[in-house]
Amino acid sequence: VQLQASGGGLVQAGGSLRLSCAASGLTFSTHSMGWFRQAPGKEREFVSSISWRSGITNYADSVKGRFTISRDNGKNTVYLQMNSLKPEDTAVYYCNAKNLPYAWWGQGTLVTVSS
Q1: pLDDT bucket at 78, cuts 50 / 70 / 90
Q2: Shortest CA distance to 92 belongs to which of 105, 107, 79, 114?
Q3: With CB atoms 3.0 to 4.6 Å apart as the test, which of 5, 24, 53, 80 could cross-link to 109 if both were Cys?
Q4: What is the tens place of the pLDDT at every residue in 3-47?
Q5: How far is CA 17 from each of CA 22, 32, 62, 99, rounded to the nearest angstrom?
Q6: What's the confidence (pLDDT) of residue 100?
């Protein structure tokens, strides 16, 4: 299984980025997908997820109303649209694929938000 995250970069506060995570080696449509992030010196934290069956989405309180997760099962890709970015959103963002009891992680993409 491979999860290839991309789309990170440097952006000013208030700006936007869209992260993508392309999955291979698994049946994408039967896996819930998620985004997590890890800031320097902090533990990895949940950002958002989207279920495989009904497309139900969940968000951390810190990103509600600013981030939107979506998936394209035809392209085996999950997206994270990030708007109104804040310096505290700076982190390495990881995508996650889950079909319990199995879970896989991508390599991460760095998002840096300057003030």
Answers
A1: very high
A2: 107
A3: 5
A4: 999 999 999 999 999 999 999 999 999 999 999 999 999 999 999
A5: 16, 22, 16, 27
A6: 87
Instruction: State how far the Cα of 106 lies from the Cα of 108, in Å rounded to an integer.
Output: 6
Q: Are 97 and 71 in contact (CB under 8 A)?
A: no
Q: Select from 69, 70, 44 the least CA-distant residue to 59.
A: 69
Task: State the amino acid at position 80 in one-letter form.
Answer: L
Task: Quickly count helices (H) and strands (E) in the chain.
Answer: 0, 11
Structure tokens at 49: 């997820």
| Count of positions (residues) in the chain | 115
The two tokens of residue 107 are 């390599």
